[in-house]
Amino acid sequence: MAILADENTRVIVQGITGREGSFHTKLMLEYGTKIVAGVTPGKGGMEVHGVPVYDTVEEALEEHPDANASIVFVPARFAPDAVYEAIDAGLKLVVVITEHIPVHETMRFVNYARQRGTVIIGPNCPGIISPGKTKIGIMPGRVFTPGPVGIVSRSGTLTYEIAYALTRSGIGQSTVVGIGGDPIVGLSFTEAMELFERDPETKVLVLIGEIGGDMEERAARMIEEGRFTKPVVAFIAGRTAPPGKRMGHAGAIIMMGTGRYEDKVRALEKAGARVARSLSEIPRLVKEALEKA
């Protein structure tokens, strides 16, 4: 099994005729992702890497009613409209790669998606991959391999590094979700953990957090309250970040004494998670957790 996306997921690429959309459509097709259509207003009738292009998501679904997910490469100015279009068309999974979408716009479409039963991953995220089954995102597919470890992460680059380290240690992954580093994201750590808890293929979870916000503390409460029962190995980025200075992601900032590295580590360890102080520790900790799982 996998969470959210597998070999049966059929994908529409919104913004497929743009540079990024076209480039990553090719890579996703090479990975084996079932991309059935692309959408760019005014470009209907074209083909991109053999994928037919339509003017709207609704038109794409008329020809490809089996499509059930989309990935958005639309520029930030127009991306919210693209997301609403996918939600209104009934797609249940929308991966928003676009960065620099204003926070208030994200809040609106995330709230709208929740009301309509659509899962949003992102924005400003690398996407989701279920190794050997499908990739709906921009991550390098070669660093992942099928296996029993779920990964949920706020950082794209750290996700790739940690997945590659696990793969080199002979440890594969069930599903890897990059939820994005913006202050507001569609899928939270705890929501992803609920899905991993129900996935029989996932034996251990790697949680990659960072300073800022309180998603890691909420994940810790979920573990502490027994609502997530599988072993967790965590890593928190930003250990040396000074308060008030944003570190990379828009959401990675310590403000008014909240979102500190020490607080997140303390909460996770108190809940029973093992927190790695360096990336190189993670394969060993995961291996030990798998032996006990």
UniProtKB/TrEMBL annotation:
Keyword Chloroplast annotated: no
The entry's keywords: Ligase, Nucleotide-binding, Tricarboxylic acid cycle
Active-site feature positions: 249 (tele-phosphohistidine intermediate)
GO biological process, one term: tricarboxylic acid cycle
Record: residues binding CoA: 17-20, 43, 97-99
Domain CoA-binding: 4-101
Involved pathway(s): Carbohydrate metabolism; tricarboxylic acid cycle; succinate from succinyl-CoA (ligase route): step 1/1
Matching SUPFAM superfamilies: NAD(P)-binding Rossmann-fold domains, Succinyl-CoA synthetase domains
PROSITE patterns membership: SUCCINYL_COA_LIG_1, SUCCINYL_COA_LIG_2
Example of a GO MF term: succinate-CoA ligase (ADP-forming) activity
EC annotation from Swiss-Prot or TrEMBL: 6.2.1.5
Enzyme class: ligase
Keyword Manganese annotated: no
Catalytic activity reported: succinate + ATP + CoA = succinyl-CoA + ADP + phosphate; GTP + succinate + CoA = succinyl-CoA + GDP + phosphate
Chain sites annotated for binding substrate: 160
This protein's GO CC annotations: succinate-CoA ligase complex (ADP-forming)
The family this protein is said to belong to: Belongs to the succinate/malate CoA ligase alpha subunit family.
Record text on subunit structure and interactions: Heterotetramer of two alpha and two beta subunits.
Function, in words: Succinyl-CoA synthetase functions in the citric acid cycle (TCA), coupling the hydrolysis of succinyl-CoA to the synthesis of either ATP or GTP and thus represents the only step of substrate-level phosphorylation in the TCA. The alpha subunit of the enzyme binds the substrates coenzyme A and phosphate, while succinate binding and nucleotide specificity is provided by the beta subunit.
Record NCBIfam families: PRK05678.1, sucCoAalpha
Protein name as annotated: Succinate--CoA ligase [ADP-forming] subunit alpha
Gene name linked to the record: sucD
